[in-house]
Amino acid sequence: MISQAKFDICKKKSFLVSKPKDCPHYLEYKDKLEDTHGAKIGAGNTKEAIIDFLDDKPIGCGQLITVEDLGFSHNLFETDAGLYDVLFQKYAKATKYGVLILVGTLDNFKKWTASKACRKEVEGIPEGRLFAYIEHTPEDNPTDLGYIVHIDAENCDASATVEDGIGYILWNDGQYYHGELRDGIRSGLGTEGYLEGDKYCYYDGEWEEGMYHGKGKKTYANGDVYTGPFFEDQMHGKGIFTFANGDVLESEWVHGE
To answer: What is the pLDDT of residues 29-75, one digit of tens each?
Structure first.
């Protein structure tokens, strides 16, 4: 099923694109990267993985190739999703940098996450070959909007868009962080979302060295909410736990108990 001609075409491309099904600005992001102004390269492992990628420089027309360009899609493999994933990963291996999840916004990233097929197609992508394109909001940074960032593909540390300031960290299982960063680590005020089954849990509050630490609010997938202090990722101090059925527990918590 692997076409040598298409494999050879992929060798001339920078990335194979993975994208959410309904991404309204997909072509706009593609044009920005290929022809308009490119993107900045995120901090940490991102710079190590694509060391010869130039900040704010277009990568060239046609450098982002899609499965549609290669003549296959999820719709053609409804009865054999495994074969689709094999093809996707083989062609991705041939490209210069690997796979680029082209989302642009956090909402689009969550759409991508909601597709089990999208998450499945990148499961076999090795360390250092999976990236995402996401834009800072004007509130984050009014001048440096577009970033390519390394994604955690094998349970290693994902990389932030910026070392210091307000930015993003994304993981291939749908987890994300948006907030303050120090040395590329979650520190200060920020929001985390992560999947529990098919629903998101959220933490919004203070962080220190990548952990919940200080005042915060934790919203669970079942609708339960805890509001109060945290210490090293655990509820610790006087807090309020509001159950989804409306019951409220006000209590002193010690290391999560």
So the answer is: 999 999 998 999 999 889 888 888 888 899 999 999 999 899 887 77
Radius of gyration over alpha carbons of the chain, in Å?
20
Domains contained in the chain, number = 1
CB-CB contact of 192 with 181 (8 Å): no
Is 118 a domain residue? yes
Q: Which of 8, 9, 109 is nearest to 63 (CA)?
A: 9
Contact between 132 and 170 under an 8 Å Cβ cutoff? The reply is yes
- 181 and 136 in contact (C-beta within 8 Å)? no
List, in order, residues 6 or more apart from 151 with CB less than 8 Å away.
Answer: 101, 122, 130, 131, 132, 158, 170, 171, 172
Q: Give the Cα separation of 85 and 182 in Å (integer).
A: 37
Q: Is-contact 162 190, C-beta < 8 A?
A: no
Whether 47 is covered by a domain: the verdict is: yes
Q: Could you tell me the strand order of the sheet in which 146-150 lies?
A: 40-41, 146-150, 130-135, 98-104, 15-18, 64-65
Domain that holds residue 110: 4-156
Identify the H or E element spanning 178: strand 176-182
**Position 247, amino acid:** D
> How distant, in Å, are the alpha carbons of 103, 165, 219, 245 from that of 241?
35, 31, 10, 11
The verdict on residue 20 lying in a domain is yes
Domain presence at residue 66 = yes
d(CA 38, CA 58): 4
Q: Are 202 and 193 in contact (CB under 8 A)?
A: yes
- What are φ and ψ of residue 101, in 5° steps? -80, 110
- Using one digit for the tens of pLDDT, what is the confidence trace for 179-226? 999 999 999 999 999 999 889 999 999 999 999 999 999 999 999 999
CA angle 100, 39, 84 (to 5 degrees): 10
